[in-house]
Amino acid sequence: MTTPTDPDVQHLANLLSFLPGPDDQYFWKDFPGESRTGYLLGKLVPKIPILRKPAPSPAEIENLAKYLLMFFGKDTPAMHDYIGRHTDITPYELAGRHWLNDLQATSWRLYVRYQPSQGRLEAWPDDFREWYRQQREGGEHG
């Protein structure tokens, strides 16, 4: 298997390898907070192969990271315990909490790194101190 060169993408692949594959219907069907059978799996399965590409596109990485943040963003004891049961570390809740926090942090870094800025930084004034001084004095910013 080839792996992407970004170490965070490699780490994300390693984290996801703790989870059972899509053929484990019990794990995915009973996933905490998942009320629509197959929805989570249907969204994730097409995105997972990018983890085997040597050079996934920034858009592919950003999209996977965004979905992982949405689906694994529920930071609850039930989620910790459920995921922790798929590690060989006890107590399960502690292992699951570490796994979930690591997945969330790694996904967030990838999302921020590969998400187009969409002009956000360019919208800030070049001389922020001057702009701020003018705002405090009630003047216009330029």
Count of extended strands = 0
Count of the separate structural domains: 1
Largest sheet, described in full?
A: none
User: Order of helices and strands, N to C?
Assistant: HHHHHHH
Q: Name the shape in a single word.
A: elongated
Alpha plus pi helix count: 7
Helical fraction: 40-55%
Topology:
Layout: H1 7-16, H2 25-29, H3 39-44, H4 58-71, H5 77-84, H6 92-114, H7 128-136
Helix pairs in contact: 1-6, 4-6, 5-6
Tags for this model:
142 residues, mainly alpha, 7 helices
Characterization of the model:
- By secondary structure, the protein is mostly helical.
- The chain has one domain.
- Helices cover 53% and strands 0% of the residues.
- It contains 7 helices and no strands.
- It has helices at residues 7-16, 25-29, 39-44, 58-71, 77-84, 92-114, 128-136.
- Helix 1 packs antiparallel against helix 6.
- The chain is elongated, with a radius of gyration of 20 Å.
- The N and C termini lie far apart (53 Å).
- The model has no long low-confidence stretch (mean pLDDT 84).
